[in-house]
Structure formats: C-alpha cells, structure tokens
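In response to a reviewer's request, we include the raw inputs and outputs for one of the modeled complexes. The two entities were modeled together in a single run.
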Amino acid sequence: MNKIMSDKMIIALYTLPALMLILVLIYVPIVLTGYYGLMDWDGIGQMTFIGLENYRVLMTDSMFWRSAYHSLLLAVFSVLSLIIYLAVSVVLSANIRGADIFRKVYLIPMLLSSVAIAQLWMRIYHPSNGVMNRFLMSIGIDNPPLWLSDTNIVLFAIFVPILWQYAGFYIIIYYAALKNIPKELVEAAKIDGATPLQIAYKIKLPLISGIIKVTIVLAVIGSLKYFDLIYVMTDGGPSGASEVMASYMYKLAFRTNDFGYGSAIGFFLLVLILLVTYFIRKLTASKDDNVQY
Amino acid sequence: MSQQNSIVGAEKGIRKKITHGFLYILLIIIAAVQILPLVWLFLFSLKDNQEVFNLPPLALPQDPKWGNYVTVWTEGNIGVYFLNSVIVTGSAVLLTVLLASFVTFAITRMNWKLNKLVLGLFMVGLMIPVHSTLIPLFNFYLNIGLMNHPLSIILTYTAFNLPLTIMILLGFYYTIPRELEEAAIMDGCSVHRMFFRIILPVTAPVVATTAIINMIYNWNEFVFVNTFISSDKYKTLTVGIQNFIGQYSADWGAIGSTLVISILPILLAFVVLSNSIVEGITSGSVKG
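The model returned the following structure tokens for the whole complex.
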C-alpha cells in the first residue's frame, strides 16, 4: 500500500503538468517583471540596463501617484461597503423567508462579464438617454451631471457599478459564515434576554471575525489591482480622472510600448499587494484565530 | 398585572412586526437595485431607438423587436465570438479540472516529502495580480509563436485558475476515507485505475462545482484576450462585443441584444446550477 502510494514516477506524472504551467505562466513572469523593470525597453528592440532609474521616475510620476490614490480610494470604499453587506447578511441569516432567493438575486451581477456590465452602465449613465439622467430630468433637474465625462465625479460614478458587481459576493460569504454559527449559542443568549442587535454585535460578529478579515483582504487587494470596468468605461479618462494603477500600467505597456517602465509598475503592484496582504493579516491577527490562512 | 403584561407583549409583537416588515422592504429594494439594470437591458434589447428614447425606461416594447437578435447574430461576428468562447472556455475548464484533480490527489493521498511546498506554490498563486505577469507573458507568447493563437489564452486561463480549483477540491479530498484506497490496492488496482475509476467518480459533485466556477471566470475573462488575441476569428465574446459595440454605438437595440446574448449562457447556468455556484464561490474564498 505505502509503496504504491509513494511511487515517485506517478507523483511526478500527476503534479508536474500543473506545476509546469504555474511556474512558466505565473512564477517565471513575476520574476521577469522584476527584471524588465530594471531595463529601458520598448518591447521590440534592445534592452538597456538602467538599474533603478524606472523606480526613480516612478517616485516623481504625478500621474502614477494620482492613479495610486484612485486605487486607494476604491479600496476605502470597498472596505466601508463591507459594513453594509455585513448588516444585510445578518438580516438575511435571521430566518427570513426567501433568504435563499434574495442572496442568489444579489449575486447575479457578479456572474456577468465586466465588459457587459461596463457597457450596460455606460448606457445607464448616458447623458441624455440613460435611465439615470432621464429619471433626474423627470423630477425637474434640468442639467443632470455628465457622469462619465465630468472629471469631478467620474471616479465615483465608476465605483458604483464596481460595488454593485461585488455586493452579492460578500453577502454570500457572510451569509454562509453566519449560518455556520451554532444555534445553541444564539438560543442561549436569547434566553438570557439579549436583544437581536446585541446578539448580532456581541455574539455573531466576533464568531465570524476570521471571515471578516479574509473579506477585508479580498476587498483591499481586489481594489488595488482593479482594472476591468475602468478600462472599458472611461479608459482612465477624462484626462486621467479615473485612472487606476493597473489601467495606467496597461496603457504604458501596450499603448506607448514602454515595457520597461510598465514592468516596474507591474512589479511595484505585486510587492504592494503582497505587503498589504501580510500587514492586514498581521494587524488583525489574534491568538484565538481559528481560521486558517 | 397579567393584563398589563399582555399589553406589553402585544406592543412588543407589533414593534417586532414593523421592524420585520421594514427590513423585508429593505431586502427587496436591494434586490431591485441588483436586478433592475438587467431588466432594463433586456427591455431595450427588444426596442428600436425611437422606443428607447421616448418610452419610459421600464415600459414594455409595443412590438418586441426580436429581429435585433437576428441582426446582430447574422451581421456581426457575434456567432464566431460565441463559438470561440465556447471552445476556449470548454477546453480550459476540462484541462484545469483534470490537472487540478491530479495534483490534489497526489498532494492529499500520496506520500511524499515536498507535498506541502507544492501546495504552497499553488496557494500563493492565488495572490498574484494578473497585471504583474502581463508583459512577460506577452513577450513569451510572441517568442514561441502563440501570440494571437487560442492556445495562449487556454493555457493562461488554466494556469491562473488552477490555484482556486485546487483549493476548492482540497477540502473534499480530505474527507474521502482512506479505506477506499486501501481496499482498491488490496484488490491489485493500479494508482491510475484507482484515480479514474474510484476517485474521480467519488469527487464528481465537487468537480462539477469547480467546473461551473471555472466556466464563469473563463467566459467573462477580458484582459488576457484583449492582450493576446488580435484577429477577429479568434476573439471571444468579451473582447468581441467590445469592438462590435464600438462600431454600432448608436443602435441601442443592437447593443442590448448583443449584451444579452453574451450573458445568457451564464444566466441559464445560474438558473439550473445556482446551488453549486454559490457553494463554489463560498468555499473558494473563505479559506483564502
């Protein structure tokens, strides 16, 4: 038994194909991104080693820091919206009739492609024929905002469908965690005279704190690397008002062929995400953490 | 005394009912926010511009223009994109699920020293942002001649979905009793035979869950196709409709029906398999 189940040939045969794929298509590329980041390179011609020059430029590139600020704002909004999702999940998990249908309906936007969602919301925000402005005009607002071309509001206008898309995802996760709480605990608290609000706050939330940490990490990471809707809806515009780190990097690499500098930003993004993950977990770590990371 | 108690009780009951009703209305409003944009999309896919601009947004079209669907399917390349999406999604899902099952089996059931390290490599893969790999991948596919070839996206989807797929499979594999394998090996069964004849059938439910999750991710993927595929004959729906809509940006009915066609397979899958999808999303994130 042990001999057969320790057969090196079979182990290699079963693991190597998948291992090769992630090594060649994930791990080698992140090392190469770090390497290309030290080069002056247009993607076609000769590479020239320039050391940390790209990172020196990055430090003073106001367009980059503006996009980094936008990514950070998205992270803040995403984390704050978790509070709403959590509240909704607490309500949903309290033996509400039709809870299963509700959470599934909430999830639907997350299943759709970003391109479809982006195109749909571009119509919703359409200056004259979109539902948003037609509604505003119907209640007497004559000059409704130009959602996607006003530099002051475009970023927030795009945050709405991003949050809309992922709401159901977090609600599903919280709902599952809340449903896993042993009924006896809640019953015991009820007998002791605890109000529903107290039960939610003092018993349920602490019990799912592990899951809450995971979702905070997911929301922050997901925001810092966010790309899809912004690329399709505004392409970072107008004049950089909705640019985020990933869209800025994409433009540098695949529009202006600045592969060296683009790689430096790609590598920066990688390091940033690994560091942020590490620190959030460290900051929120507690001794009685029973969730395995 | 008892009368007083019952009055207090009744008041409490009414308050509870009011809170309950209020919360219920809140849940319904959220549901409406999540679903109404899609209802609006479906409605304008059946209208002509005249109706889109003049009727109230959620009004039914007087005479549904199903012709919009016929037009975009026959005049654009939507049919080609659709088929490409099916082929790319299908191949990547099969490859991912099979390779992930192999790995999970080797990691959880076979005895070797490096299994934790290999598992760690897959799990760290979950955190790598796509954009940090894009330029080297672009260069790699260019050099090996797979640029603008469907294999480039099939292989990339597989690599990037393996970590999540393995993570979902892992929990299920740990619950398979060892006796199952022991008995099979006593009977002289080879490892391959055991894997294909016993393990795969036993894990079928969780394999189905990972397959549907993979299907959704691959069907909707945008960045890789947008970067690696340039010719119309290989584009999948996401990038295809993006270009198509760019050309027809004035015809709302055409845009609407294109979008509906692109999301319909996922919506249908959801109607049939919502429980697996919910389960896959939960187990795929919670352990992260």
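As requested, we also summarize the result in words. Chain A touches chain B through 93 residues (CB under 8 Å). Chain A is about 70% helix and 0% strand.
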